[in-house]
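ok, trying the design again with the full structure, not the truncated one.
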């Protein structure tokens, strides 16, 4: 409980700081990209074109990063509703296979009896994608991604969505810091360290929780425990009340 509070406070502080920064930085990037566009349009010199392309790519990376920062520092309320979890996973499967590449097999094991949860559909999809991309990065030589839905074993008011890979796994010191904003073990330009902290923040806001089970050399399973909802009866207000204990 204490570490949860600390986690929430850390995220709030970083969120406030980054929200403002990301916004200003994005405006600067717009100016940079605009000027690069002009340079590209006005030169016939291949060397200049190439240099402009390089700068353009760097600016694009920067713009992706600021989008992630803005998503992370979001202050607006989530649109929570009753979401058919299995449907969401099936609807996202095309997107998932596109982002994973050919050497990763996707398996799904969906519990037909327990699909409705309290969630923001779009944000949960973003979270699922974030987890899948982490899984991909952990399986450079290929492997299997398994997405499972099942009733929570210890709490029947909850449904567990787990995203499991057969990748490198995480040592205990990485697990301990994985939810920290900006913690990454990936090379610069590849990792931002915001994926898992974003997933954590979103799921907590939906009244759920996130758990990591991982073993080095075996793989990782990220488990989202979400609140079960009775189809159609979940109101935004009820979900909001439950989310108040989480990160807002
Ligand atoms: P990023 O992916 O940008 O590094 P994240 O917050 O998503 O940021 O992840 C933080 C770190 O947690 C990663 O750098 C990686 O070391 C570790 N990690 C996350 N997911 C996995 C996974 N599925 N397998 C192995 N390590 C992982």
């Amino acid at each position: 409980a204490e570490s949860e509070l600390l986690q929430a406070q850390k995220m709030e502080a970083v969120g406030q700081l980054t929200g403002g920064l990301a916004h200003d930085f994005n405006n600067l990037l717009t100016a940079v990209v605009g000027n690069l566009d002009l340079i590209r349009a006005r030169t016939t010199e291949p060397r200049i074109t190439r240099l402009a392309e390089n700068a353009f790519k760097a600016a694009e990376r920067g713009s992706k990063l600021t989008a992630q920062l803005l998503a992370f520092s979001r202050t607006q309320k989530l649109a929570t509703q009753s979401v058919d979890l299995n449907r969401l996973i099936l609807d996202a499967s095309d997107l998932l296979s596109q982002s994973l590449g050919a050497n990763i097999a996707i398996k799904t094991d969906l519990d037909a009896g327990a699909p409705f949860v309290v969630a923001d559909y779009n944000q949960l999809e973003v979270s699922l994608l974030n987890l899948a991309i982490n899984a991909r990065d952990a399986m450079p030589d290929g492997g299997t991604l398994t997405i499972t839905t099942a009733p929570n074993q210890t709490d029947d008011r909850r449904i567990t969505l787990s995203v499991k890979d057969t990748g490198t796994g995480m040592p205990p010191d990485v697990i301990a810091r994985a939810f920290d904003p900006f913690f990454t073990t990936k090379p610069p330009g590849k990792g931002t360290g915001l994926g898992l902290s974003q997933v954590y923040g979103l799921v907590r806001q939906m009244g759920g929780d996130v758990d990591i089970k991982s073993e080095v050399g075996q793989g990782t399973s990220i488990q989202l425990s979400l609140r079960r909802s009775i189809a159609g009866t979940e109101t935004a207000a009820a979900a909001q009340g439950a989310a108040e204990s989480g990160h807002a």
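Keeping the full-length input from now on. The beta strands are 81-84, 104-110, 116-119, 143-151, 158-165, 209-215, 219-227.
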